[in-house]
Amino acid sequence: MKKIPIDExxxxxxxxxxxxxxxxxxxxxxxxxxxxxxxxxxxxxxxxSTGPRVGKRLSDFHRSQISKSKRGNKNPVWKxxxxxxxxxxxxxxxxxxxxxxxxxVPEHRIIASRALGRPLKPEELVHHINGxxxxxxxxxxxxxxxxxxxxxxxTKRILKNNLKExxxxxxxxxxxxxxxSEED
Length: 184
Ligand SMILES: [Zn+2]
Known about the structure:
Helix content is 38%, strand content 12%. By secondary structure, it is α+β, with helices and mostly antiparallel strands. It has a domain at 1-47.
């Protein structure tokens, strides 16, 4: 099975908020369920129990202990309040409406929200246009719906694969940037 990275935002949205099953996400993205499951684990997303298939999962307690030991300046990637989490830069902003339970907010969501001049709605995703999840310059960010985000990544993958077939290797690495309205 090929290692196919799936955007963390896409997975979190689909699996946690939209409560889709691994199989549903796999069908939607045109991937194997195993690939989706591996990506969920890679992003530290706790798998929901699916009956007899339980697998090896960390308990919430265990996870919180790991997080604690890596919190703040004990974290090897500590950058003055910024940490690298699953490939994304996150800022320590305890109490912020968009913060997770450890008080971190993904930097790209903060920047997008400031650019729009309003908080992001939970259903709004921020896509990195050039594919670099750490390039949080405004011009590299695209706020879009989950459906549009899935479409972007799907199209990008199809383009890449087809070009690979025709030319032997991909000619373009990234989708051309698509600017959408800053409102919905
Ligand atoms: Zn994306």
